[in-house]
Design the sequence.
């Protein structure tokens, strides 16, 4: 037994909007250094749950703990401090079009640290190189390809060296080779920083390559959770079909019904 608390814990959590649950009864524990995939059909609530875990949307009920601390039961300033130990790459990459790529990646450093301009510049240079975008600082976001924009978003989400990185569909809409490159980058993050990764994805190939475990949502709650090997052999027909149907057509955007 160790005293290290889980990175993320959801205890009987319901999430949704205007008092109406999108997901409920969510119990989830993600430990340090794990890579966990969140799966489920379009509209099942994956992004909503991520919003709740990342402090943007209070749960309708239940407790959300980050690093062992109840996120929504602490003063706002403490919550912000805790959230600074996390990074999020949103589903839409949300790079600011009015800034260069370098300025986008530097933004968290400029807003949340007192580091000098030369140090910020060096950190941005290194991080862009790490995600496979060396020298792209001066470019406009609109001049990047879809895959490059996703990488730039990863660079910005990770620039403060978070202990956990939440990625909402980091490779959706990309061709398989580019998607595999993003997976490589995510694995590098774990190797380099021991980072915990929580990834929303539909790509079975990606799940198999990088995830230790997956959690699958359907019917407004968790349908199944386990290692990939366990889920591939699931007795639940819905889970089995999802994993094995997609396996026949790698990279297809298959989703459970
Ligand atoms: N701001 C909002 N206000 C009200 N309802 C919302 C809001 N955002 C999302 N929803 C609804 O909540 C449900 C879950 O949406 P969510 O974006 O979490 O799904 P998702 O699993 O991430 O889907 P996808 O795979 O398509 O990204 C959907 O029915 C959606 O229409
Ligand atoms: Mg989503």
Sequence:
């Amino acid at each position: 037994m160790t005293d290290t608390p889980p990175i993320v814990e959801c205890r009987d959590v319901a999430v949704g909007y205007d008092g109406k649950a999108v997901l409920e009864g969510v119990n989830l524990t993600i430990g340090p250094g794990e890579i966990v995939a969140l799966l489920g059909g379009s509209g099942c609530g994956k992004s909503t749950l991520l919003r709740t875990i990342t402090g943007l949307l209070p749960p309708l009920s239940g407790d959300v703990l980050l690093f062992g601390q109840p996120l929504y039961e602490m003063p706002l300033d403490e919550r912000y401090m805790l959230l600074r130990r996390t990074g999020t790459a949103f589903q839409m990459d949300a790079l600011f079009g009015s800034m260069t790529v370098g300025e986008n990646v530097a933004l968290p450093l400029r807003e949340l640290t007192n580091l000098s301009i030369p140090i910020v510049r060096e950190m941005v240079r290194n991080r862009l190189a790490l995600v496979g975008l060396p020298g792209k600082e001066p470019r406009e976001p609109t001049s990047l390809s879809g895959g490059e924009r996703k990488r730039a978003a990863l660079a910005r989400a990770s620039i403060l060296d978070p202990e956990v990185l939440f990625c909402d569909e980091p490779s959706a809409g990309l061709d398989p080779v580019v998607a595999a490159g993003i997976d490589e980058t995510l694995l590098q993050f774990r190797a380099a920083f021991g980072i915990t990764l929580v990834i929303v994805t539909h790509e079975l190939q990606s799940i198999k390559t990088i995830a230790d475990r997956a959690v699958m949502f359907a019917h407004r709650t968790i349908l199944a959770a386990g290692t990939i090997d366990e889920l591939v052999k699931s007795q639940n027909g819905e889970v089995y079909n999802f994993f094995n149907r997609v396996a026949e057509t790698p990279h297809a955007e298959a989703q459970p019904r």
User: Anything to note?
Assistant: The longest strand covers residues 20-30. The chain has nine helices and ten strands. Residues 96-161 form one domain.
